[in-house]
Amino acid sequence: MVNRLALFPLGTVLVPTAVLPLHVFEPRYRRLMADLGGPGGSPEGGELGIVLITRGSEVGGGESREAVGTCARVAEATRLADGRWLIAVVGEGRFQVTTWLPDDPYPLAEVRPLDEPPWDGDPGLLADTERRVRRCLALVAESGGSAAPVTFGLDAEPRRATWQLSAVAPVSVVDRQQLLETESHRCRLVRVAQMVDEVSELLALRLGEAQ
After folding, report:
1. pLDDT at residue 49, as a whole number
2. Low-confidence residues of the chain, pLDDT below 70?
3. What's residue 21's pLDDT?
4. pLDDT at position 1
5. Which of 35, 109, 177, 200 is 20 to 30 A away from residue 41, measured at CA?
6. What pLDDT, on the 0 to 100 scale, is given for residue 63?
7. How far apart are CA 44 and CA 89, in angstroms?
8. pLDDT of residue 208
9. Quick one: CATH architecture of 3-114?
């Protein structure tokens, strides 16, 4: 099934379950908020697609974009006096762009939803990956960096927990895009663990040299 979806290209990656705050100030995206909310309404509950910019800027248009993104639901929306919006979106299902449409009046595409595969991991792998992520976040905090708190909570449902680990892992946007595109939950957990181990090794080395 192919759907038409408004897109919000960004320099970050949103994965399912994650929350992302956005400041909507460009005229094209103000128009999107108006279309989601209807005449005089709020965009809360509306859906848009978040895709990673591969080349270009978030402002002005003309950017290149990844073809796999995340459908996001507007969970909160506050309209400012000058017409700007402060919104928070929640990542839901993934999609694959099948056709890019003209950016008129804002980015649009025809997309195919990507099904959420069944859980194929195991409790031990999930717990070990969680431990590695928490260790990495602790090292980030010790080094003075900014990241998710070590005390983050995980959902009891393993597929959601896997996505949550993918969201809080302190990795690059390129790596997070790779996690988004990974089909198997087990493979995603393995990749998360490998990625954060590399970050942890580098941070531990830097912290050791600083002492």
Report:
1. 98
2. 57-62, 209-211
3. 97
4. 79
5. 109
6. 72
7. 9
8. 75
9. Roll (2.30)
What are the extents of the domains in the chain?
3-114, 123-210
Task: Judge whether 3-114 and 123-210 match in fold.
Answer: no
Return the sign of the alpha-carbon dihedral for residues 55, 95, 133, 12.
positive
pLDDT of residue 38: 81
Closest listed residue to residue 7, CA positions, set 32, 31, 25, 24: 32
Angle at 184 between CA 182 and CA 187, to 5 degrees: 80
Q: Which fold has domain 123-210?
A: Methane Monooxygenase Hydroxylase; Chain G, domain 1 (1.20.58)
- Going from the C-alpha of 2 to that of each of 14, 64, 110, 116, 161, the distances in angstroms are 21, 21, 6, 16, 28
Look-up of token digits 């759907």: 3
pLDDT number for residue 91: 98
Three-state SS letters, the chain: CCEEEEEEEECCCCCCCCEEEEEECCHHHHHHHHHHHCCCCCCCCCEEEEEEEEECCCCCCCCEECCEEEEEEEEEEEECCCCCEEEEEEEEEEEEEEEEECCCCCCEEEEEEECCCCCCCCHHHHHHHHHHHHHHHHHHHHCCCCCCCCCCCCCCCHHHHHHHHHHHCCCCHHHHHHHHHCCCHHHHHHHHHHHHHHHHHHHHHHHHHHC
